[in-house]
Write a structure and sequence with these properties.
This protein has about 270 residues and is an all-beta fold. It has no helices and 20 strands. Strands 2, 3, 13, 14, 15, 16, 17, 18, 19 and 20 form a ten-stranded mixed β-sheet that branches. The termini are far apart. The chain has strands spanning about 5-10, 30, 35, 65-75, 90-95, 95-100, 105, 110-120, 125-135, 140-150, 155, 165, 180-185, 200-205, 205-215, 225-230, 235-245, 250, 255, 260-265. β5 and β6 form a beta hairpin.
Amino acid sequence: MNRILYVFLASALLVLGGCSSDNDDEGEKKSNVVFTPVDATPDWAVDWTWNDPAPDWEDPAPTKFECSMNMLVELSSLLLPYSTDDDLLAVFIGDECRGVSRRNVINGGEVLFLVHVKGASEEAGQPMTMYYYSAGARQLFINDFALSSFEPNNLMDRNDKDYTLLLSPAEMSTKYPHFTEMMVSMPDDVPFTITADDKMAIFVGDECRGLCRLAPNKEAYDEWRGVIYTRSDGEQGQLRYYSAEKQGVYILADGFTLNNGLQYINVTF
């Protein structure tokens, strides 16, 4: 029976790239809000570049194990800007590397990894751990497969949705090992018209830690959701909002503690 393992190495709520901050000079201040006009839409994004060294993973000797399985791993479009030919993906059983793959770029620009995982017959059902090294980001992502175990002689292909596994970078990242699922409620009396071109981001200091998007299937623009990434518990977040109508950024001076869980906040302007 063919099975699939799509591994999306990123949160669908984020666009990877350089993180920018706003110029707070000469802004209009009202209550707890500072408004600053800007010339262009801000390109807020989480910066995933880091300083992990490249690993030296190697396949086991061809005759060491009598069983094997194939795994097809697809790289999320959110990490594609960081992907290079030096990317590596490895699967471990316990502390031992059982298969290594380099990327394959197919039509349309998709990046796939086909990993030939080796093992012993008595290891059937053993949990596996995936390690992905992004050469462009210089960062290691680690994930214990919650739904996957070693199954000798099985091919995981792209057609069996029962084996789709969605991975958030926060579950794997060495740079941001924690995350907060953020839900932001907007007031009815905002001083601008909310549009689909508006942006909302959460910063820690001058560093963008995540974007919030309009909640799907909402008739009004009153609820925004996002995943916010943190390095440690208790970091202080600050909300920034870009209004396309006003062509400026509202910075809410009142911060809040990121709790590394599900968090609701109500904002006022």
